[in-house]
Structure formats: C-alpha cells, structure tokens
Amino acid sequence: MLIGYKLFAEGYSPQEMVRQAERAEAAGFDFVEISDHYHPWLNDHGHSGFAWSILAAIAARTERIGLATGVTCPFIRYHPAIVAQAAATTALLSDGRFVLGVGAGEQLNEHVVGRPWPAARERHEMLREALEIIRLLWQGGYRSFEGRHLRLVDAQVFDLPEVPPEIAVAISGPASARIAAELGDAVFATEPKPELVSAYTEAGGRGPRYAEVPLSWAPDDDTALESAHRLFRFGVTGWKVQAELPNVVNFEAATAFVRPEDLRSSFGYGPDPERHVAAVQQFAEAGFDRLALVNAGPDPDGFFDFFEKELNERVRALTPATPGR
C-alpha cells in the first residue's frame, strides 16, 4: 500500500502547492498528485495554476516523493504530442518519479479552446488515440499518426527518459477500464467501487490501482464538514455531472441545495482518526493499493500533523483486497 497526498490546485496558489508538496514529503507521503485544471470548480476556490509548471517546481524542491497528474485530458485542451513532451520532461526533471494520470476530461476545462464537447463514447475513442500517439512518441524518432479524431505529423520528442513514465488511466466503467488495461500501466478512480477494479482486471489489467480518498480534518466535526462543503460539495453531483457542466456558475447552481451534513457519508471528517481510517479502508477493501488522501479541511498543516501522528502507520497497515475476490 502506497499513500499519497492530493494537491488541490483549484483551492490554493501555485506557490502553496509547491510548499504543500515539500511538507508532504517531510510528513512521509509516498507521492503527490495534482489536478490539471484550467478553471476551478467553485467560486470559493479561486485558483487554478498550470499543473505542469507546478510539477517542475516540485521536482526541483523535493528528493524522494513521487509526482502524478490526477488527471490530464490529453486530447482537447492539449494535443497528445504536447502531453507526451510535457510528461517526458517532467520524468527527466524528477529523476523518474513521475506518473502520467490521464482521463476523458471535463467540459469545465476543455471547452476553453472553442471545440464542441464530444459525447462520452467519442471521448473514449479520442482518449484511446491520444494514448496511442503518446506511446508512439515515447518510442523515439519522427512519428506520424492518422486516426479518426486525432493526427500527428512528423513529430519527435527529443528529450526522453530511459524508462517512460507509467500511465494511469481514470476509469468510471467497463469501457474506460478496457482502455486502461490495453494502453495504460495503472488505473485511477475516485469512488470505492470494487466493480471498477474487477472491470480492469477482467480486461487484463495488472497494474497499480490509484484512488482518491476524501477526508476533511479539523479540530471539531462542524468545522470539518463546513470546510468540506465549501471546498468539495461539487463532488456529490457525481461524475456524469462533473464531466458535463461547462462553467463555475453551473457548479454553483448544481450544488446550491447541498448541505454540510450531506457530506457525512462520503467523507472521513473531524478530529477522530477512526473515522478517517474507516474512510481509507473502504478503498482498500475495494482493491485499490495507491491511495491519495484529499484534505478538504481548512488547515493543511494541521492535516499533515494529524497524518504523521494518527494516520500514517495505520493506513499503511491496511491490506488491499485481491482483485476478483
């Protein structure tokens, strides 16, 4: 079991993201992963720095901790050739500590370049072609590709690591699980659903299984829930809504009737470590073995102290369920 920390780039400045990554390394986390957004989800967030610049700064300021995108859409806002180059450079700057997390994207971030938002099936087709292009470019040399949706013309990534980064593919069901098994090295999810792990393994996937665990630490329950509501109420809308809404104002409207108490069932919250461990355990029992802890509480440094004193040893002792059992 590896334990990571989610860098919530929509809620903090780029400088603070780098500081939190350094603090996460000192606290004993195995990796950090950062959201790759153009816009934040809600008005209260107020930030959305460029993930790749932040990763470069973290690579320069840390020594041991792994880095990952959680996750990048590699085919609308970016062309996969750019993602292939960015990932290769980040792998070099971090001495091989980087994992490329990819997914089918959200309209919130991708619509900014003026392209129509494709249906989910088409996005999966585009994701498959994007991964084929990235893999092709990582082989070296000049490469071209002609797909149904994407093209590559005489492109070469000149600075390549000796070992390509692992690719973790975000999955939400059987279709994306098949893409992960065929073209990825790992999976990435945000819900403790064993059927996601099963879909991946049944499709032939044998790699690491990443997931984000929602937590909210504060000295009292009410403060923890209020902070989770302020920062993460968008999460209760579900993945289909999160992928389709185009702007912050839409997420504000969609979450207008969400109450702090509505987050009790999905978050480990407050000062009680038992509640946090129970939240992490759900993901271990679902079969995930790379768990990124998301802190929706108001005090990042308080959460790091809480992790060191109360959570680190206990969550590492959890045993991921064997896929398929």
Give an account of the 3D structure:
There is one protein chain. By secondary structure, the chain is α/β, with parallel strands linked by helices. It is built from twelve helices and eleven strands. It has a single domain, classed as Alpha-Beta Barrel (TIM Barrel), CATH 3.20.20.30. The chain has helices spanning 14-27, 51-61, 80-93, 107-110, 120-137, 174-183, 194-202, 221-232, 239-244, 248-254, 273-285, 300-316; strands at residues 2-7, 31-34, 66-69, 98-102, 143-146, 151-155, 166-170, 186-189, 209-216, 268-269, 290-295. It has an eight-stranded parallel beta barrel with strand order 1-2-3-4-7-8-9-11, surrounded by eight helices. A two-stranded antiparallel ribbon has the order 5-6. Helix 1 runs parallel beside helix 12 (300-316) and helix 6 (174-183) packs across helix 7. The longest helix is centred in the middle third of the chain and has 18 residues, at 120-137.
